[in-house]
Amino acid sequence: MNSPSRARGAPRGAGGTRQARELLRVAFGPSVVALVLVAAVVLLQLLIANSDMTGALGAIASMWLGVHQVPVSIAGSALGVMPLLPVLAMVYGTSRTTAAATTSTSWFVTRWVVASALGGPILIAALCLAVVHDAASVITQLQTPDALRAFGGVFVVHAIGAAVGVGSRVGRRVLYASPLPNWLPDAVRAAAAGVLALMGLSGAVVAGSLIVHWSTMHELYSITDSVFGQLSLTVLSVLYVPNVMVGAAAVAVGSSAHVGLATFSPFTVFGGDVPALPVLAAVPTPPLGPVWVALMIVAAVSAVALGQQCARRRLPLLSALAKVVVAALLAAATMALLGFAGGGPLGNFGDVGVDQATFAPAAFLWFAGIGGLTVVMSGGVAPRVRRPVAEPEPEPEDEDGDEPVTVDFDTAQAGADPEPGPVAAPSAERGAPASELDPEEHFVVDEPTSSSVVDEEVRGGRQGSTD
Fold it and tell me: Which residue ranges traverse the bilayer (predicted)?
């Protein structure tokens, strides 16, 4: 009795150990990887600058919080415009580890996976806040960030990653089991296609603008003569590329982006001072010219991509339009979230970001309008099926078109006359008038058979012999 229980307990223990390792990787894997990369960058910069390691831990902790969109304050200047590339990488890493750990259909295990994905980063955030606070007591230029903002930023970043990871595993099954429409997963996929198309095409526009303004970018690189300085500018430019892409997307849908007093929209450009970052050489210079037409094409093509994804499964008209509206709302909300995360205060330059009052509504109008038109034109609306109406079968008619006469035999036996009506002619004389018919032709006379003829002759012979 004991050996079978031990045999059953061994796999359970092995499975529990493996599950514990998965939860630890979900809790600390992406955060520890980001912390190691940040530490490597900080230590490399300190070594190249021949600086001591006094504030190394404080700088590492501040940069790890900055990866989660927590503003960093140095010497009274707030750096709120944090690069989007690290936070997008953090969301991607969290979603991958969470999806890999969500292999069971048990909601108990899924809740533990989500709790691990949120609990581990919050614990590291608390440690980083303590390190920054301790370093700020030694380095007066470093300031401790707001604790509520720090915990909120870390929680939101990893919650988005956990939602994406778990949703990729069990989201479709949960939606199908819920009373919500079955086309919601298709709407989410269409929204993702629209956002990726808009960001990708905006990146292509940014790359083309950098090529056009190559001389301006070369001047921005010339502010430093050292190779390490130019390498640092290149790394910063790469990290801030998604921010510039979001600004280009805002201009493409008809909104505006601003860097301090400099404002950029598809119709007007107001110049101003911009930071000496090579990637910002892509910003347009006045006068804008006909480039706004190309930007409108970017918005239209992105909306077409969303509409094509919505048209993959044909639905009735109202359901198809509802799917497009939901996908447009999700895409516009995602772009608004990216615009909010990619903006903020930038020291003496002022506020940097997009116009949130017009960005999300303009993106929704493009996605809903052009996307809905694409669904209709691509055959995403199922035609209304009309049920055929059953017609009564025609009564059988005679060959000459006369209807047969029905006679009530009970009435005929009682001596009553049947109802007047057309009398069908006999089949032998069909079509002839009733007055020309001879009644005798309807009598049947039996033909004499051979035996009756023989009897007739025998009787006749007897009568002759008698005579």
Answer: 26-48, 68-92, 112-132, 147-166, 187-214, 289-308, 320-343, 363-382
